[in-house]
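Problem statement: downstream parser choked on a complex file, so we are re-checking the raw output for the uridine-5'-diphosphate run. The parser issue turned out to be on our end (a line-ending mismatch), but while we're here, posting the original submission so the record is complete.
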Amino acid sequence: MIDSRRGGWTLTDLISVVVPFFNEEDGIDNLFIEICAAFETIPNSVFEIICVNDGSHDLTLAKLLNHASGDPRIKVIDLSRNFGKEAALTAGLDHATGDAVIPFDADMQDPPNVIAQLVEKWREGYDVVIARRADRSSDSYVKRSTAALFYRAINAISDITIPENVGDFRLMSRATVDALKLLPENCRFMKGLFAWVGGRTAEIEYVRQPRNEGNSKFSGWRLWNLALEGITSFSTLPLRIWTYFGGITALFTFFYALFLIVRTTIHGVDVPGYASILTVVLFLGGVQLMGIGMLGEYLGRIYNEAKRRPSYIVRKVYFQKSLEHEAA
Ligand code: UDP
Ligand code: MG
């Protein structure tokens, strides 16, 4: 078949769908059915599904292996324990071999039929196609407003721009994924790393669905830590701000001291003032502790990076060839 965009000949593209699984046993059967159905509508494509089992303690692994033994397009990467979604996604991206790679959640909140739109846009020549949620009505009010606050904060204080209402669900070209693999940090805030790598980017809109089965793995505390991870990975403003705060406080103190000297010279010593002194001491004590805490956040991360531990450990990789091998 002739296709002018691609140097004359239409080639078959291999698309990798990378899915992290953490205790998702209930949704697995349906997930594979839907992804396979979605690819039937995409011409000139073959696909592989890279399933990363992120230390699930239910039947997720058994179910994945069951599917993988019957379908060579399904590969299973079993991690040695739960490393968290960012690490699981990294493992999946490292093992994906496709011309384009799509991270995908196991709970199918992102509808599989959107994959066709991503691929179509990518074929127009983009490096990255991001999928923006047209509305976030499937999320709670608190999650929506804290997310909005987080994006405003991180975009204001970091050099990169992380698009709002965009998750990990997107399509990346092989070159983009290879660039991503060059980033050596093991604290991996994926949305930030995606934005850092850049590339010619297109955008499509879709409506995000509520979770199919089970509950979200991201509690308020986990989300808070993810937000801290994002901010500390992409901005040093929280570290530097204390210099300015300290400078301004010192300047005010200097003028206040001058004022006190003048007043004492004219009116003599003024004994009352216990409440104001205590307020200032407590306030500055609190501010100093916050500053030290902020240092701690960065120091902890430097410590983690300095250890140079990998962000995940693979217990075993399963794909059909090795299963046949084992059976023989
Ligand atoms: N996930 C994972 N490891 C974890 C937590 C989550 O691999 O420690 C996976 C989970 O199985 C799902 C995806 O990450 O495929 C998104 O998780 P979830 O739906 O709980 O997040 P939310 O949609 O609420 O942001
Ligand atoms: Mg989800």
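For whoever reads this later: The first strand starts at residue 2 and ends at 3.
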